[in-house]
């Protein structure tokens, strides 16, 4: 008689009912997860890949590389590693007599915007609520809560009561994304007279360079003729800026869909993600079948079925 058979035969009615209920609920959860992963795999296969320049508004699939927006860099707070996206967890060893377990003391995920770039353009990515497959995932241990340095590969900080887990999308990493694509037309506030006045004001505050550039007779003063030349130069500069701004492409943004379709950011290809989802679907469906078999076996063994 196996241990499972012995346990079923000797369990009280109340314990058996509770075990069956938990098994049924677990099977239903596994069944739901299995169908969810099948749905995701089919959705990825059926969603055509788009280029940023020609992508339709709505749910799209894009392929490109991770880039940073102009401005301050994105840096992982756990290891000070430059990246496009980060997520980390810090756990502390909780010593309780003979039992040791890890307790999460800090966990955070980046919500900073970054770029997805393909040969036709760039798209701003808002990573909130995305399902992310990173380009780098690592864990190590140490004696302090914040290491502020990644492991060096030679066992540095391989001991201690703190365990660190870090996930990163590195700058330049290949990026596959599905999500809600929308284009926002830039609203340009182009006022030629105002912008010329502001630029002239800036030049006046820098008297040394103003004289160097426009004092044609070298008398240390800007006369009316020289001032008019400066104004014409400012006008040309402002008009060139306005032309450049008016030629800027519209602002493309990729974010979490308003419906229940998945928002995916992955450094794996679409083919790899589809294979992964189908594998997880198979595991969950097999688990659901196993739960169903276990319930039927228990009921039959106790002559309840």
From TrEMBL:
One of its GO terms (biological process) is protein ubiquitination. It comes from the Bacteria. Keywords: Membrane, Metal-binding, Transferase, Transmembrane, Transmembrane helix, Ubl conjugation pathway, Zinc, Zinc-finger. GO terms for molecular function: calcium ion binding; ubiquitin protein ligase activity; zinc ion binding. One of its GO terms (cellular component) is membrane. It is found in: Membrane. InterPro entries: EF-hand-dom_pair (IPR011992), EF_Hand_1_Ca_BS (IPR018247), EF_hand_dom (IPR002048), MUL1-like (IPR022170). The chain crosses the membrane at residues 16-39, 279-299. Its main location: membrane. It catalyses: S-ubiquitinyl-[E2 ubiquitin-conjugating enzyme]-L-cysteine + [acceptor protein]-L-lysine = [E2 ubiquitin-conjugating enzyme]-L-cysteine + N(6)-ubiquitinyl-[acceptor protein]-L-lysine. Its EC number is 2.3.2.27. The keyword Transmembrane applies. Residues 202-237 form the EF-hand domain. It is a multi-pass membrane protein. PROSITE patterns: EF_HAND_1, EF_HAND_2. This is RING-type E3 ubiquitin transferase. It comes from Stenotrophobium rhamnosiphilum.
């Amino acid at each position: 008689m196996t241990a499972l058979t012995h346990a079923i035969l000797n369990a009280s009615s109340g314990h058996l009912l509770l075990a069956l209920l938990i098994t049924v609920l677990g099977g239903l959860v596994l069944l739901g997860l299995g169908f969810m992963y099948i749905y995701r795999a089919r959705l990825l296969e059926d969603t055509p890949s788009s280029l940023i320049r020609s992508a339709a508004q709505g749910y799209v699939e894009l392929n490109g590389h991770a880039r940073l927006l102009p401005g301050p860099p994105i840096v992982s707070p756990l290891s000070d590693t430059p990246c496009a996206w980060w997520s980390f967890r810090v756990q502390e060893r909780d010593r309780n007599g003979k039992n040791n377990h890890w307790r999460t003391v800090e966990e955070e995920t980046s919500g900073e915007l970054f770029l997805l770039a393909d040969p036709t353009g760039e798209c701003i990515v808002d990573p909130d609520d995305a399902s992310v497959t990173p380009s780098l995932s690592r864990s190590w241990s140490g004696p302090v809560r914040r290491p502020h340095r990644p492991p060096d590969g030679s066992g540095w900080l391989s001991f201690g009561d703190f365990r660190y887990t870090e996930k990163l999308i590195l700058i330049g990493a290949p990026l596959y994304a599905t999500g809600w694509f929308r284009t926002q037309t830039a609203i340009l506030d182009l006022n030629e007279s105002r912008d010329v006045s502001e630029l002239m004001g800036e030049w006046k505050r820098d008297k040394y360079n103003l004289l160097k550039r426009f004092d044609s007779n070298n008398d240390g003063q800007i006369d009316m003729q020289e001032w008019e030349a400066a104004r014409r130069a400012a006008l040309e500069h402002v008009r060139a800026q306005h032309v450049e701004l008016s030629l800027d492409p519209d602002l493309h943004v990729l974010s979490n869909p308003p419906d229940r379709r998945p928002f995916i950011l992955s450094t794996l290809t679409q083919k790899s993600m589809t294979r992964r989802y189908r594998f997880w679907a198979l595991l969950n469906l097999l688990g659901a079948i196993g739960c169903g078999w276990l319930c039927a076996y228990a009921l039959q063994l106790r002559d309840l079925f």
